[in-house]
Amino acid sequence: MSAPARPGASRLCRLDLWLNPVFDRIIGETPGISLSVLPARGDDARTLAGLRTAHAYHVSAAKDELPRQWFVTADLIRQCPELVCVSSGGAGYDTVDVAACTAAGIAVVNQAGGNAASVAEHTYALLLAVQRRVVESHLRLRHDTGFSREDLMGHEIHGAVIGLVGLGQIGTRVARIAQGFGLRVLAHDPLLDAETIRARGAEPVGLDRLLAESDFVSLHCPLDASTRGLFDARAFAAMKSGAVFISTARGGIHDEAALYDALRAGHLRGAGLDVWQQEPPARDAPLLGLANVVATFHTAGVTHEARRNVARSSAMQLAAMLRGERPPQLVNPEVWPIASRRIADLT
């Protein structure tokens, strides 16, 4: 439900997709902002009319849940001349064309860190489920008889090497947790210098060395031009024989067909996958048919705590921007001088 617009108030819109209620509460308690909740489906004319007059837009980061017409594209931006602030409802911003926003003088924020604890925990949930064959054991107990415990024998993770591709807020938490499991941590992150990587609990290495030495390879990098298709057949072939691949990052960074081939051939021991090219994947997706794959539906960051953190972060950053304050998680910081002037002109 939308509140009636207050004269002189900044106009903030979001769609009626599920959002933790803390978002509406914070915005409702913030003077000078009127919130409109618009239908994601069923009344495109009403939604477009609302966005055309919006100053700020909170947009879902879920690319396969948000209808395409409400992605923040150059086309939508052309129809929304008053838009000055966009907030992606997650650490990712696949539904936002950041370059188009920057060209139009629109500040974009994400919620990096809001779900970092949840995603880091899920990384180990997947890794342990693969190594200890948790899903296989569960299914056999439900459906089979006449098997022994040794038929389900798994492997410890203690004393192994975990290689992290990306060492941002999530990767750093994964590295910290690794110490408790007795893991040696390697990390490759071209955005960080060696001193920073060491300070975050990992040994800096190039990607080739990481693949060659790691017993487990876990992805924590964004999906962009430099990482799309990064894990292809060559990368999987370069991993240690018997290694495990984990991704809680983004679908599209790894080639699903190439991963399937590496698993079927026995080169890799298993995989834990939370992200997919298409979400959810088709029920007959080849990877879902492998016993050594543990799959989840992009739920690594979908906990009650993480969703509340992300909603609060988004509301607070939008409120700050509409007051003319620079937010902490600007995706396009170079646009802030222009965006701040546009925001000042709203008052």
UniProtKB/TrEMBL annotation:
Q: Which InterPro entries match?
A: D-2-hydroxyacid_DH, D-isomer_2_OHA_DH_cat_dom, D-isomer_DH_CS, D-isomer_DH_NAD-bd, NAD(P)-bd_dom_sf
* Keywords of the record: NAD, Oxidoreductase
Query: Which Pfam families does the record associate with it?
Result: 2-Hacid_dh (PF00389), 2-Hacid_dh_C (PF02826)
Q: Which PROSITE patterns match?
A: D_2_HYDROXYACID_DH_2
Q: Which residues form the D-isomer specific 2-hydroxyacid dehydrogenase NAD-binding domain?
A: 125-300
Q: Domain named D-isomer specific 2-hydroxyacid dehydrogenase catalytic: which ranges? A: 71-332
Similarity-based family: Belongs to the D-isomer specific 2-hydroxyacid dehydrogenase family.
Task: Give the protein name, as stated in the record.
Answer: Hydroxyacid dehydrogenase
- The organism of origin for this protein: Achromobacter denitrificans
